[in-house]
Design a protein that fits this description.
Blueprint: E1 31-36, H1 43-53, E2 59-65, E3 70-75, H2 80-88, E4 95-96, H3 113-132, H4 137-151, H5 153-164, H6 170-183, H7 187-219, E5 225-229, E6 235-239, E7 248-251, E8 261-265, E9 269-271, H8 273-276, E10 282-283, E11 289-290, E12 295-296, E13 301-305, H9 313-326, H10 330-361, H11 365-379, H12 382-401, E14 404-406, H13 409-414, E15 420-423, E16 435-441, H14 450-461, H15 467-478, E17 487-492, E18 496-501, E19 504-509, H16 511-517, H17 522-533, E20 537-543, E21 546-554, H18 561-570, E22 574-578, H19 583-593, E23 597-599, H20 604-615, E24 620-624, H21 630-635, E25 638-641, H22 648-653, E26 656-658, H23 665-700, H24 705-724
Parallel strand pairs: 15-22, 15-24, 22-23, 24-25, 25-26
Antiparallel strand pairs: 1-3, 1-4, 2-3, 5-6, 5-7, 7-13, 8-11, 8-13, 9-10, 9-12, 14-26, 16-21, 17-18, 18-19, 19-20, 20-21
Amino acid sequence: MTERSCCSGGACTTESRPAPPRRGQRPAGTQSLRLHIEAMDCPTEESLLRRALEDMPGIERLDFDLIGRRLTVHHRDVGEEAIRRRIAATGMTAERDDPTQRTAPTASSEEPWWKIGAAAALALVAEASHWLKLAEPWLAAALALTAIALVGLPTWKKGFIALRHRMLNINALMSVAVTGALLIGQWAEAAMVLVLFTLAERIEARSLGRARNAIRELLELAPESASVRQPDGTFRSLPASDVAVGSLVRVHPGERLALDGSVAEGHPALDESPITGESLPVDKAPGEAVFAGSVNQGSEFLYRTTRAASDTTLARIIHTVEQAQANRAPTQRFIDRFATVYTPAVFGIALLVALTWPWLFGIDWLEGIYRALVLLVIACPCALVISTPVTIVSGLAAAARSGILIKGGNVLEQGYRLTTLAFDKTGTLTQGRPSQRIWHPLDGADMLDRERLRALAAGLAGRSSHPVSAALARAAAADGIVPLEVSEVQELPGRGVVAKQDERSVWLGNRRLMQQFAASDDTLEAHLAGHEARGETLVILGQENRPLALFTVGDPLRQESHEAIEALHRLGVTTLMLSGDTPASVAAVAAQAGIDEAHGALLPEDKLAMIEARAQQGPVGMVGDGINDAPALARADIGFAMGALGSDAAIETADVALMDDDPRRLADFLRLSRGTRRVLMQNIAIALGLKAVFMALAFTGHATLWMAVFADMGASLIVVANGLRLLRRNERPVPSRS
């Protein structure tokens, strides 16, 4: 079936979603039917299908994926055949969605180009003979009707279907305009209008295919097969979908990885740019994670799979991008509402012109009808409606190529509004792998107990999930310290760990935890303050009401953090640091990074309160790990998850996931968001400006039907090409930290 232009003159209504369930989740008690509809690729078809299906008893919700041409019908015991019949009534054919069987549309599935060429030649001859009076009127009419027969029948059919469903889309308006032109004897002009419309929508469809292909290219990154080791030691090529988790896979130099896993043998250098956007290869050692879609640029190696083909990091990226492009941006929602009012209003004005212009201005009745027909062609907000989805999809695809995963078009568009970015410290601006620096006993603890003190600290640290505790446990293990067993362990978020050892209460944590159990004197306070002033994180070991030992932990600033903060400042963004570490430690790290404002000793609820306070002053973003900072990430206007590579939680919780852990991607996101916003505003200005100019020309009688088609479809082509510019954005490559 011919791929056609994405324009809508009717109601492109925004999908109404109640609160939960979220998009992609099936409403409770319903069944889901996934259909592939080849002809559904733009708001025109979506609106038509909504009109046909939404009032059907048992239909709960419709989820549209125009890029993938998929429709998911959530229903309660509605027969599949009944749904297919409703879809068939719109002139479209639905098939069960099977990604493995589907291929890209080929030229053979479209109307042959020779038909358009022949129709254009006939229409030009008819137009020339009409203007130059080179032939009898009946010959010009015959030529025009032949041209219409070659390319115009599909448009008439679609227009009739739209009118039957009470929709004023581009096909309906074009059909009415051409029919009216034929009835008043404008044969050549009617033919020229249909030929120009068909040619323009074919070009537009090819242009829109670029946005669709940008998503389809992601699907092609992972190979369909993998070389899997068999029980007898030989290797056999198997479909990726058949490879079990835990299988051993061989990868030759230059091959792409089909599945996620961890290196078992070898030291490969992998190009992970499809996942992270990094341009340089990353060296991998045994035990390190590897991801589907990466390219082996080093020697042959073996890796053990950790995920099924349907659950790889690449698969989740693709799924998220597909869902994101279906979430309408605010501008798109506004334009859809505008179109529902604008099109019927102009249709009414056209009728008014046809009926009153001859009486008011003394022109011929046929001239009044002709001006009304020109207005009908201008009435369709084709360029306006298609400009936003093409721009948003292009922006989402460009971001995904750079390793920035954006959860929705609304997030991409609204990112330009951010005036403040708040950062967590550990793992966001710092390297995220703290290491123990020094330690020593406190309060006159006997020097002979040093090993026991470290063993007790290791026992408590091993029962905590905090990165600082992990640093103590690693240091103890490296020195051969055997951890003491502790019981009744309680982890206090933002403070530390409390437990029992030999029936005594023992604790390991920050200054806040120490203040909960023990009083400190001036000497200890001065000692602690000296370490904090150097930006060190303090961990205090205690028993009952007595501090026993002090450990200092350092988490070096990322090499790229200072550059990232500078880039944000150049974009006019204010930066904050919100951390649970001591204020002195946070201030020291913030000074190194160039952060504007730093706050330490914050519990998760304190971070949330600060984000809420900042949100009162303007849009604010929160940058964290997607788990510990979940309340603040959820409250922020946009939540950014750092280091989301391979992390389900980060991809699920954040609005934007940075697939590598480079904070410089934040400035890339803001530049892309602002660029997207500029393109959207340009497209709206182009579409409305051309409409206004040609509407004025139509009122004064200076516009012809074919000029109106040029204005309408030409504007569509301009805004599509303008939106596709985002795919060519060449952001600064971020060097690898292999």
